[in-house]
Design brief:
Layout: H1 2-7, H2 13-27, H3 29-41
Helix pairs in contact: 2-3
């Protein structure tokens, strides 16, 4: 899936990062919360 997204020339690097990182965190807020808790524990 990442190779497919990367092959789209019309997407900027920021767009691609949003698709694979930011959008899933918005759709699944528990992931973002667990990542924040894990980072705070370090």
């Amino acid at each position: 899936m990442l190779a497919l997204i990367d092959s789209f020339d019309f997407l900027t690097t920021e767009d691609k990062l949003a698709i694979v990182h930011d959008n899933p965190l918005r759709m699944f807020p528990r992931i973002a919360k667990s990542r924040a808790l894990a980072a705070a524990a370090v």
